[in-house]
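wait is this the right file?? whatever heres the structure
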């Protein structure tokens, strides 16, 4: 049989494949259990207006602490959750939890927007619009405080269908962002047709500023283009003061990254706003 033959011919290669396949299978099985048992939690990374150093929003990021394996990174399990469809249930949980968090912050007088990552599977789900509407209603969050993050690749397949879905989302009153902008293939002629409010400049362009002059050119160009299209810009993965200064000189004032803060628990955020000097990166 082909598989057995391959195993003899490419022994080591095949062993590696088996290990990868086993890990995938393991995560897949454990994910099912994790969803049932609620092993997930959220962290919230502040989005800062660098001119005032005020928090203007938070991005919700899912965390999985497995009872035996410990921390498993979202980059490892989100693609598997996506491929198996489990992301729909997990994503629904994330959305509700994030909306409740933002609604709680608002009630405590610390109103801030909340951004939630959507996966391709969720975006294509015929029940997405109704689901968002229900979640907003049940959590009492004002739609304009919710930002949904999509990626270019999710929009570029069936462009007309994507635009239609985006318009339906906009009708709910929520704000839309393109995440990791510049890493996917997207046609600039389509970009202006997408009813999107925010472009998030991917960390890969920001991380080597100021050493890499190409990255500086690209980042400046993305910011200028967003402004021409009347979109807001958020820079991701900002880690240094030089990066903040460069972004400011190029008219990007909202930033997210370790320079200001790593993703935090709700508890840390509540403590921080009682003592604003605690937990600052600088
Ligand atoms: P993303 O949406 O682009 O999120 C930003 C990622 O960059 C987060 O990684 C965040 O912790 C990390 N980050 C933020 N600031 C810095 C920095 O200054 N330096 C560095 N090196 N990294 C920084 P995380 O939490 O591991 O998430 C990775 C990706 O997993 C996310 O990328 C997003 O695509 C996906 N993801 C996370 N949570 C969810 C979720 O609830 N649903 C979906 N569908 N995807 C999620
Ligand atoms: Mg994101
Ligand atoms: Mg991103
Ligand atoms: Mg990114």
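ok assuming it is, sequence goes like this
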């Amino acid at each position: 049989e082909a598989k057995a033959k391959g195993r003899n011919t490419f022994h080591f290669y095949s062993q590696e494949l088996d290990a990868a396949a086993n890990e995938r299978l393991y995560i897949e099985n454990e994910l099912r259990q994790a969803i049932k048992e609620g092993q997930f939690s959220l962290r919230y990374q502040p989005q800062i207006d660098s001119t005032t150093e005020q928090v203007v929003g938070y991005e919700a990021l899912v965390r999985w602490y497995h009872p035996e394996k410990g921390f498993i990174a979202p980059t490892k399990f989100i693609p598997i959750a996506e491929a198996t469809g489990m992301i729909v249930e997990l994503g629904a949980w994330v959305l509700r939890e994030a909306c409740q968090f933002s609604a709680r912050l608002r009630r405590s007088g610390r109103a801030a927007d909340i951004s939630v990552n959507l996966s391709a599977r969720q975006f294509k789900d015929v029940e997405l619009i109704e689901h968002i509407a229900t979640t907003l209603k049940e959590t009492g969050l004002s739609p304009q405080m919710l930002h949904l993050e999509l990626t270019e690749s999710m929009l570029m397949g069936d462009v007309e269908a994507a635009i239609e879905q985006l318009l339906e989302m906009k009708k709910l009153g929520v704000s839309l962002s393109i995440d990791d902008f510049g890493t996917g293939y997207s046609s600039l002629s389509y970009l202006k047709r997408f009813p999107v409010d925010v472009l998030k400049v991917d960390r890969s362009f920001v991380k080597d500023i100021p050493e890499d002059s190409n990255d500086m050119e690209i980042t400046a160009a993305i910011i200028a283009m967003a402004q021409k299209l009347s979109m807001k810009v958020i820079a991701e993965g900002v880690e240094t003061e030089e990066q903040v200064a460069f972004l400011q000189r190029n008219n990007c004032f909202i930033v997210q990254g370790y320079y200001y803060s790593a993703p935090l628990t709700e508890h840390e955020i509540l403590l921080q706003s009682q003592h604003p000097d605690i937990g600052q990166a600088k």
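The chain is about 50% helix and 20% strand. so i think its the right one actually
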